[in-house]
Write a structure and sequence with these properties.
Chain lengths: ~110, ~120
């Protein structure tokens, strides 16, 4: 079973920041927090991952709570192309990914 | 293109027929994964290979399913005696092996093969 909880859906306006929350209260010390997204009719694509510290890359930022029981994926300026299902996944090294149903993000023009 | 490719993209078959899907991973990736995804759900892990060795199989992978990766490059997933419940998107992904304690390598997914069993 997925070890994360995410809202089923969220909406954002184009060019505004989006904060996608994820709760993972049972996280272990060696679980990495991964985010993937799946655009319509495509396979999932990697967005970002982290262990303890906040992470930034060209796609997004990942803010991890100090107790690691929650995290937030931040898209700094949403575009129409960011409309997708976003998956938050906990994974220990060597384990397999367990995807939940994710958050469906709609971006309004 | 150096991404993961899957063929065919769509397959319609009649119940009871056998089907085979192919996945070509990114060339330097040793690990190859198969997932199944039904409508409205996230992908479910089926099995994975490290080179040609099949290291783990999910209990979702019934005895009608078989996967191979004979030379450690491309992989095939065969479903025998298909059932309507097998209708789904079958996704393949590849990644580098996790050799370091500090690194968790991301998986790169293909576009999937959509199977419809009538």
């Amino acid at each position: 079973d997925a070890k994360t909880t995410q809202p089923n859906s969220m909406e954002s306006n184009e060019e505004e920041p989006v904060h996608l929350p994820c709760n993972h209260s049972t996280i272990s010390g060696t679980d990495y927090i991964h985010w993937y997204r799946q655009l319509p009719s495509q396979g999932p694509e990697y967005v970002i991952h982290g262990l303890t510290s906040n992470v930034n890359n060209r796609m997004a930022s990942l803010a991890i709570a100090e107790d690691r029981k929650s995290s937030t994926l931040i898209l700094h300026r949403a575009t129409l192309r960011d409309a997708a299902v976003y998956y938050c996944i906990l994974r220990d090294r060597g384990q397999n990914f367990v995807f939940g149903p994710g958050t469906r993000l709609s971006v309004l023009p | 293109d150096t991404g993961v490719s899957q063929n065919p993209r769509h397959k319609i078959t009649k119940r009871g027929q056998n089907v085979t899907f192919r996945c070509d991973p990114i060339s330097e990736h040793n690990r190859l994964y198969w997932y199944r995804q039904t409508l409205g759900q996230g992908p479910e892990f089926l099995t994975y290979f490290q080179n040609e060795a099949q290291l783990e199989k999910s209990r979702l992978l019934s005895d009608r399913f078989s996967a191979e990766r004979p030379k450690g490059s491309f992989s095939t997933l065969e479903i025998q005696r298909t059932e309507q419940g097998d209708s789904a998107m079958y996704l393949c992904a590849s990644s580098l092996p996790e050799l370091s304690q500090q690194i968790s390598y991301e998986q790169y997914f293909g576009p999937g093969t959509r199977l419809t069993v009538t």
